Amino acid sequence: MDEPRLRLTGTGEGLTTTVVTVLSGADSPQRVMQSIHSFFPDATLELLPDEPKFGAPSSAAWTFENLSMQTFLAALHEQRILDTALDCMSRNLANDQTEFSISRQAAINEKVSFAILGKEPLGGLISIQLSGNGLKEWLEAATWHNGRTQVPRTVDDERAMLDDGEASTWH
Asked: Which domains, ranges and CATH numbers included, belong to the chain?
């Protein structure tokens, strides 16, 4: 009988998680918080800023620290985008630190859409910074799926997607 697979959360695993988003112009603080809560339900603000209005646009940078990755990682598994997640989450990996971004507009609909480097999607970004000893191995474990028994994957292997988001060709 197969045992259920252990799912990582980032909590108590030596991982530091920082989530950052910038509000500007017509960004609704309520909707932006809703998009963050889609994947990071433990993110809190003492007071939500007022909604923007003519002459008083949104202007804020929100930073949330030490959030659980549990809901985010569960979404990656549910949406079956674990290889894409491994590539995107490890693209900027150096010295046991990485940073990647997801679309706020997709997040509000509980979908993970990784941002392509240098392109900001309509609706803004949620930036996620991870750091901790053995981060490379943690990323590989957090995105592991049964298909990797047939086609092994590791950070920055020959199967990694290209920087523009296109699939690499491999045989």
From this structure: 16-149 (3.30.1440.10)
